[in-house]
Specification:
The chain has about 350 residues and is an alpha/beta fold. It contains 13 helices and twelve strands. The strands form two sheets. Strands 2, 3, 4, 5, 6, 7, 8, 9, 10 and 11 form a ten-stranded mixed β-sheet that branches. Strands 1-12 form a two-stranded antiparallel sheet. β3, α2 and β4 form a beta-alpha-beta unit. The longest helix is centred in the C-terminal third of the chain and has 23 residues.
Length: about 350
């Protein structure tokens, strides 16, 4: 069933949960990771509460020190709210692990604060995981709502293998995970990563024999950034998002999945190699125009090739810009110091969910 465009509203009524002991295991934890999502956080929470109806479940907001009204709006709902202590710890990888640190669910659903979750998907995915013990996680169809910039237009037009129905090699854009599988690979999400945290998790899981599936049912509706392309690229650079490939490669050193990680980022690594060769060539032949001519020729050929492939000049040019920005970020991320990914995250609990109630959604 697809989401109908109207998120169910919480009606303020309650029923007693199956288990109300603070430290006991429950069936489901829904983790919402957020940073400055005041415009969308209430819809995300209402959809999570609707998905928790009738299940021994909890909803946890893992907030990365939002500076807007995200937390104040979230506090209107009977959910647990946890928050980082230091803004220096902010990263894409820390939100899931922060929520996991406080969770009790046998199964963990991860979503962003700009998403709406489909309750029908949660119930179907829970049933699938119950009957397939070798499956670590299950995702569903992702409905992208924004194409206001080229990045999201490109995502909507892409037919990536990991977004197709069936067995996949990662669960980008969230999914329902088995706690036992997460504990088997040490931790949920690598707090060092500023992006590609789903890929890093999938590499660890699949290296230990766990499977990942995507079902033919809408799981979430995603409302991404509406910033223009160049501003969004600038935001990704300033936030460290483009460092993710390098951070992941560094974390993969000595691991059995290192070659798979290298293959994943071969385009960025190829751009780095090309610029390295160009610099060496220019240093060895300082008065030659050959390096400059080669660079210009390659750039034109790459832009033409990507334009033909995407059937769109802007998307083709964006791809070339994107490769170079991520190549620079990959270098920065690889040399960046990392800390133990499974260590306790300094954090605080801002709000406890009611201990003796389970939310009923109208």
């Amino acid at each position: 069933m697809e989401l109908n465009g109207n998120t169910p509203d919480y009606d303020g009524q309650h029923t007693k949960p199956v288990n109300n002991h603070t430290n006991s295991r429950i069936r489901l934890s829904i983790i919402i990771k957020a940073l400055n999502e005041q415009a969308k956080i209430e819809a995300a929470i209402r959809s999570a509460l609707a998905s928790a109806r009738g299940i021994d479940a909890e909803v946890i907001l893992a907030d990365s020190l939002s500076t807007d009204n995200t937390v104040e709006l979230a506090a209107r709902y009977p959910i647990k709210i946890v928050q980082l202590i230091s803004p220096r710890d902010r990263s894409c990888g820390i939100g899931p692990q922060l929520g996991f640190q406080f969770s009790r669910g046998e199964y963990i659903y991860l979503m962003d604060g700009d998403m709406e979750l489909n309750p029908d998907f949660v119930r179907l995915a829970l049933s699938q995981l119950d009957h397939q013990p070798d499956v670590a996680g299950i995702g569903g169809v992702v409905e992208e709502q924004n194409a206001a910039n080229l990045i999201f237009e490109l995502r909507k037009k892409s037919s990536l293998a990991h977004m197709r129905v069936g067995e996949v090699d990662r669960l980008n854009m969230g999914g329902l995970y088995r706690r036992a599988a997460l504990e088997d690979v040490g931790y949920f999400s690598n707090r060092n990563l500023h992006s590609f945290e789903e890929l890093e998790l999938a590499l660890r899981l699949r290296a230990k024999g766990w499977r990942l599936l995507r079902l033919p049912i809408v799981a979430i509706r995603h409302y991404g950034h509406t910033l223009p392309m160049l501003r969004l690229l600038g935001l990704r650079f300033r936030s460290g998002y483009v460092q993710g490939p390098g951070e992941l490669l560094r974390s993969a050193l000595g691991k059995p999945y290192l070659m798979k990680a290298i293959k994943e980022f071969r385009v960025f690594l190829g751009v780095i190699a090309w610029w390295g060769l160009l610099i060496i060539s220019a240093a060895l032949t300082p008065y030659s125009l050959l390096p400059l001519a080669a660079t210009a020729s390659l750039a034109i050929a790459a832009a033409a090739g990507m334009t033909w492939r995407k059937h769109n000049l802007k998307l083709g040019l964006y791809s070339i810009i994107d490769w170079n920005i991520f190549a620079l970020g990959t270098l920065n991320g690889f040399i960046r110091r990392q800390i133990q990914p499974d260590g306790t995250i300094p954090s605080k609990v801002l709000q406890e969910a009611p201990a003796d109630v389970q939310c009923r959604i109208s």
